[in-house]
Amino acid sequence: MLALSNIIKSFQNGEETVTAINNVSLTIQENEFVAIMGSSGSGKSTLMNVLGCLDTPNSGIYMLNNEDVAAMSDDALSKIRNKHIGFIFQTFHLLPKLDAFENVKLPLRYSDIDENEADKRANVLIDRVGLSHRKHHKPFEMSGGQRQRVAIARALINQPSVILADEPTGNLDSKTSNEIMELLTELHEQGQTIVMVTHEDEIAEYAQRVVHMKDGVIISE
């Protein structure tokens, strides 16, 4: 489903060129659950941004569902993100003025799904993550775990090929973290492909495969 070949991504830092990803190749199959681990500066977040089409590599090939997305325009990448990728972030990224139901529906504003279908999908997903009783509450009225559940429902609303989760338990206590990881495990068991960045060994244990990065390269799997 996802295939990176010889990906290089560098940034200019003043006069210095910093190579965040150095000739990385990685394949992720449909319905895999993969964790990417590494210390700060290892390149794992940059790799996640490339996988999510939020950043384009300087060189290399990135095939997503048999499409080469590495050299696509920003507009084309935006369409790919909306169609194929669901994002879950450490800080939830919910809009504070919208309630849970409206936050979950938000990505469908940029699709051709009609309002009735959007409402139906949002209701199904809010129920799926166990928040039917909180669907008209705004983010500030919910706990961190509930906000992350809303974010997971939002990530699923477009029926994406892959979910990219960037430190999904980073702002949660251990009990809530385990609840969120059990929910992600359940989604994986139902067929969802998941790629997760984490620095916590106990969280990575939920994945089928763990990829370790250091200094911009994959050092082990």
List keywords for this structure.
221 residues; alpha/beta; Rossmann fold; 6-stranded mixed beta sheet; 4-stranded antiparallel beta sheet; 10 strands; globular; ATP hydrolysis activity; P-loop_NTPase; ABC_transporter-like_ATP-bd; ATP binding; Macrolide ABC transporter ATP-binding protein
Brief rundown of the structure:
By secondary structure, the protein is α/β, with parallel strands linked by helices. 33% of the residues lie in helices and 29% in strands. A 6-stranded mixed β-sheet has the order 6-7-8-3-9-10, sandwiched between helices. Strands 2-1-4-5 form a 4-stranded antiparallel β-sheet, with helices on one face.
Describe what this molecule looks like in 3D.
The protein is globular. It has about 220 residues and is an alpha/beta fold. The protein is built from seven helices and ten strands. About 35% of the residues lie in helices and about 30% in strands. The chain has a single domain, classed as Rossmann fold. A six-stranded mixed β-sheet has the order 6-7-8-3-9-10, sandwiched between helices. The chain has a four-stranded antiparallel β-sheet with strand order 2-1-4-5, with helices on one face.
Mean pLDDT: 93
Q: Would you tell me which CATH topology applies? A: Rossmann fold
Proportion of beta-strand residues: 25-35%
User: What's the tally of helices?
Assistant: 7
Radius of gyration based on Cα positions: 17 Å
Fourth CATH level, the homologous superfamily: P-loop containing nucleotide triphosphate hydrolases
Number of domains: 1
Strand line-up in the sheet with most strands: 6-7-8-3-9-10
- The SSE order reads EEEHEEHEHHHEHEHEE
Oligomer: single chain
Euclidean distance between termini CA atoms: 18 Å
Shape: globular
Uncertain spans? none
Helical residues, percent: 25-40%
CATH architecture label name: 3-Layer(aba) Sandwich
Give the class-level CATH name.
Alpha Beta
How many DSSP E strands? 10
Outline the biggest β-sheet: 6 strands, mixed
InterPro entries: AAA+_ATPase, ABC_transporter-like_ATP-bd, ABC_transporter-like_CS, ABC_transpr_LolD-like, MacB-like_ATP-bd, P-loop_NTPase
Family: Belongs to the ABC transporter superfamily. Macrolide exporter (TC 3.A.1.122) family.
Domain ABC transporter: 2-221
Keywords: ATP-binding, Nucleotide-binding, Transport
